[in-house]
Automatic annotation (TrEMBL):
Database matches in SUPFAM superfamilies: P-loop containing nucleoside triphosphate hydrolases
Protein name: ATP-binding protein
KW Cytoplasm (keyword) present: no
Stretches assigned to coiled coil: none
Keywords recorded for this protein, A-Z: ATP-binding, Nucleotide-binding
InterPro entries named in the record: P-loop_NTPase
Entry keyword Ribosomal protein: no
GO molecular function, one term: ATP binding
Length: 363
């Protein structure tokens, strides 16, 4: 058995830990087909928490019910790409039943601009109505997933929401599933660009349970014929803090150790250290790469605290005015590095970031 762990963004893990029942409203909605609350779902959560994996799971659930899936990322022009995918799917529908997933369509009818021209908007809605009516006669529907919505162009999101709302009003079988970073998604919902999306089921993803992580290690290593003592499986799970990306990183390194020799306490310790280093390189350093010197000052000031940090106190440490602190706070929240933690307080959004800053960055 090959190393089953998948420490790569968006890759489906061998065991999806601690996400039982999360899709049940969505799956129930698939059987109702139109207007069910679960058919409008937004996954939010910090980087590496498993949003894209949940989108894939939702896509699989939809396909299993015979639904057509259009899978998109909210980079410029996604509305046009969805429109083109719908048009194609309608043309092909006569030839082949649904239960398919469409990605990476080439653009023909719709331009690549972010704002569809008025005639294209009409075309978009018509393409959608035709496709949805055809799918309806098959007793299925269309699920559109959009990843990274926090980065979406406001005009495109507003147009998508308006059209989907229209389809729902017509009783057509449509599901819309989004994923994005929590605060940016909150802003998107609060700005009123797509009020209708406020009614979506918002599912905030958190760290997995350490117990279930340990169980998943025990199970996978047993399957691979590697013996892993329960206490060591537990130690490895604890080192992940239930953070999904670390679950994969630790599992991956542990598997490599198992291929080289018995899983002793030393071997487990080496695997944990290797996973932490890789987490720093791939998650933390990537997240910090766009931070300015002043952003770094703010983060370093936060790292003095063991728990959440108070904005006024950060201002004193940085010798910065409240308005400046507010500005950097907002920037860092948008970047997914920091999260609001109650009135006037913030906390780190990425596991290991505090420790990283303490060991690497001096104020
Ligand atoms: N429930 C889970 N159990 C175990 N591993 C998981 C789980 N969810 C995700 N993972 C793993 O965690 C990593 C990150 O998952 P994913 O890419 O879905 O996160 P994300 O929230 O979309 O991150 P980003 O914000 O960077 O896009 C992947 O390696 C994936 O295999
Ligand atoms: Mg993702």
């Amino acid at each position: 058995m090959q190393n089953p762990f998948r420490p790569t963004a968006g890759a489906t893990p061998p065991v999806i830990v601690s996400r039982h029942g999360i899709l049940s409203e969505f799956e129930y909605g698939l059987t109702i087909r139109s207007g069910a609350p679960g058919l409008l779902t937004i996954f939010t959560g910090t980087r590496g928490i498993g949003k894209t994996v949940m989108l894939s799971a939702a896509e699989e659930a939809a396909q299993a019910q015979g639904w057509l899936v259009i899978s998109e990322t909210a980079t410029a022009g996604f509305m046009a790409r969805i429109g083109e995918a719908m048009r194609r799917a309608f043309e092909e529908l006569g030839e082949k039943p649904s239960g398919r997933r469409i990605t990476g369509v080439t653009l023909a009818g719709f331009g690549v601009t972010t704002q569809l021209a008025p005639e294209e908007q009409v075309g978009w809605r018509e393409a959608g109505e035709k496709l949805l009516n055809a799918l309806d006669t098959h007793g299925t529907g269309l699920a559109i997933t959009v990843d990274e919505v926090h980065a979406a162009d406001r005009g495109e999101i507003a147009a998508l929401a308006a059209n989907v709302q229209h389809f729902i009003r017509e009783g057509l079988p449509i599901a819309l599933v989004f994923a994005g970073l929590p605060s940016a998604v909150s802003d998107l919902l609060n700005e009123g660009v797509a009020t209708f999306l406020r009614r979506a089921d918002r599912i905030d993803l958190h760290a997995a349970s350490v117990d279930e992580t340990a169980d998943s290690y025990a199970k996978l290593f047993a399957q691979g014929g590697h013996s892993l003592e329960p206490a060591l499986a537990r130690a490895a799970a604890e080192a992940t803090g239930g953070y999904p990306f670390l679950i994969q990183l630790v599992g991956y390194s542990l598997w490599q150790e198992a291929e080289a020799g018995p899983l002793t306490a030393d071997a487990v310790g080496r695997a944990i250290a290797a996973a932490r280093r890789r987490n720093e390189r791939t998650v933390i350093e990537a997240a910090l790469s766009t931070a300015s010197a002043r952003d770094m000052d703010f983060l370093a000031a936060m790292a003095d605290d063991d728990g959440t940090s108070e904005a006024g106190e950060i201002g004193r440490r940085m010798a910065a005015s409240p308005s400046l602190v507010g500005k950097y706070r907002a920037r860092l929240i948008d970047a997914g590095l920091v999260e609001p933690a109650g009135y006037g307080r913030v906390e780190f959004a990425i596991p290991g970031l505090r420790e990283y800053l303490r060991s690497r960055v001096r104020r």
